[in-house]
Amino acid sequence: MNLFFRNTLARPGAIIALALAGILSGGAAHAAGTAAGQAITNLATLNYSVGGTAQSPIGSSATGNTTGAGTNTSFVVDNKINLLVTTTDVSPGVSVVPGSTAATATFSVLNSGNSTQDFSLSTANLATLTTNPFGGTADNFNPTACSVKVESGATAGYQVLEDTATFIDELAADASKTVYVICSIPSGQINDDIGVISLTATALVGGTSGSQGAALVETTTANTAGVDIVFADVAGTDDAARNAQHSSRDVFKVVTATLTVTKTVAPVCDPFNGSTNPKNIPGSFVRYTITIANTGLAGAPSAALTSIADTLTALVTFDSDLIGGASAAACVAGAAPESAALSGIKIVNAARTAAGVAGYPKYRTTAADADGAGVAPIAGVPTLTVDFATVLPVEGTYTAGQLKATESVSVIYQVKIN
Questions:
Q1: In this predicted structure, what is the pLDDT of residue 370?
Q2: pLDDT recorded at residue 310
Q3: Domain extent listing, the chain
Q4: How much is the pLDDT for 32?
Q5: Is 259-417 in the same CATH topology as 81-254?
Q6: CA distances from 322 to 153, 267, 340, 412 (A)
Q7: CB 384 within 8 A of CB 310
Q8: Per-residue pLDDT tens over the stretch 349-395
Q9: pLDDT tens digits, residue range 19-50?
Q10: Taking a C-beta distance cutoff of 8 angstroms, is the pair 119, 83 a contact?
Q11: In what order do the strands lie in the sheet with 176-184?
C-alpha cells in the first residue's frame, strides 16, 4: 500500500510530497501472528519542489539519506512463545475400574505462538481433596505409574505400540497434537472415587527433527537486531503466566461393577407337616438360594464372574435330586426331583432369559464334572462349587460369566437336616 502525505514547508513555494511504500518480504501471516524471524521492510520516498520546480525524489534510509532512491528500513519479527493445553475428556471424566493398568486421559496441546517449537510433557498427581475440574466430589485417591505419550497419527486413540513418543517434536505454529496420560488405578478403589491429574507442556527450542530441543530463555534486555524471545502464555491450572508452560487437569472416576452376594434359606418340607408350614427339624429338607447381583447403575461395567464355593456342614446331607414340595410321607421317602435325578443344582438368570437366551433355569448334575457345577470334597469337606464361565457361557450378547449392571444370577440347592 502507498500512503501519500503532502505538507508545505515554511519557505514559500516549496511543496513536499511524501510516499511510504510498505513491503513484506515472503512468508504468510497466520492466526498465531506473523512468523518469528520474518523480515519486515519498508521505504519512504519524498517528493518535493523548490521555487515551483519539481526536484528529484529522495528515498529514506535507516541512517538518513539526502539523495537517490535510498535503502529499505527493516526489522525481524521476534518469537512469541505461547501454548495452550486443554482437556479433551468431558464431564464426569474418564471412567476407570479398580486394578486397571491402562487408564487413559486425553489432552490437546496447541502451539499458539509464531514459530515451530518442541514441547516437553509432564504429568502430576494432585494433592488429595484437589477440586474436581468437572465439579462434584473432590479428589480422594492418586493414580499410580503415570506416563505421557504423544499421538503418532497412525491410528486414532491411544495405541501402545504406535504412540511411543514422550515429547512433541517440531510442532508448527497454529498446529496441535493429542497427548495421552496413561495411569494405573489402585485395586482398592470403589465406585465414584475421584483421581485428579494434570498435564503440563513446556515450550522448547525447535528446529532439529527427532531431537528434543533445549530450554528457551526469554529476552529480558532491550530489543536486539535478532530474533528475541517473549513468553506470552497465560497461567494454566498448575503453572504461572509467562513461563513458557501451560497446564490442564483431567479426572479418573471409578465406575465399577458393585456386586452383592446374598444367601437365604427356607424349609421345603418336614416329616410331620410336609410342605405346609414346614419347620427346620431333623429329616427336613431346606433350600439355599445364593444370589449374586450387579447393583451398578445401568451403563456401569459388567462383572465377569469366575466361581463360587459353598462349604457344607456335617450336620446336613446334600440333596442331589433337588426334590420338590411334598407330603410328610413323601418328604421322608424323598419326593420327585424338580428336574431330574442327580440334577440338584439350579442356575437362574432372568436377565438372559428376558434377552431371548433359551435354556434357563439350568439344572446341573451334582458330580464335579464338565457341566460347571458339582459337590465334591475340598480338604476333606463336601463343597459345592460353580464355574460361572461354564454355566453362563458365551450366548446372545453375553460373554462367558458376564453379569451386566442391574442383573443377577442365582444358584439354588437343597440339603437334608441330619
A1: 87
A2: 96
A3: 2-77, 81-254, 259-417
A4: 74
A5: yes
A6: 60, 13, 8, 9
A7: yes
A8: 999 999 999 999 999 988 767 899 999 998 889 999 999 999 999 99
A9: 334 434 444 556 779 999 999 999 999 999 99
A10: yes
A11: 83-87, 103-111, 176-184, 144-150
What are the pLDDT digits (tens) for 217-260?
A: 999 999 999 999 999 999 999 999 999 999 999 999 998 888 99
Instruction: For residue 338, give the C-alpha cell.
Output: 424338580
Q: SS3 for 347?
A: strand
- Tell me the C-alpha distance between 35 and 205, whole Å: 15
Neighbours of 406 (CB within 10 A): 14
3-state DSSP assignment of residue 310: strand
Site of grid cell 465334591: 376
pTM: 0.74
Grid cell 460373554 is found at: 399
Cell for 148?
505421557
The Cα–Cα gap between 341 and 353 comes to 24
Architecture of domain 81-254: Sandwich (2.60)
Please state whether beta strands 79-81 and 229-231 pair in parallel, antiparallel, or not at all (unpaired): parallel
Burial of 325 (0-12, 13-18, 19+ CB in 10 A): middle
Q: Which of 173, 211, 170, 169 is nearest to 82 (CA)?
A: 173
Q: CA triplet 49, 52, 54: central angle to 5 degrees?
A: 35
Reduce the DSSP state of residue 30 to 3 states and report it: coil
Distance (Å) of CA 313 to CA 12, 71, 105, 115, 267? 126, 106, 50, 77, 17
pLDDT at 5: 35
359: left (phi over 0), alpha (psi -120 to 50) or beta: left
259-417 carries CATH number 2.60.40: yes
The position carrying cell 518480504 is: 25
Residues of the chain with pLDDT under 70: 1-30, 368
Residue keyed to cell 502464555: 233
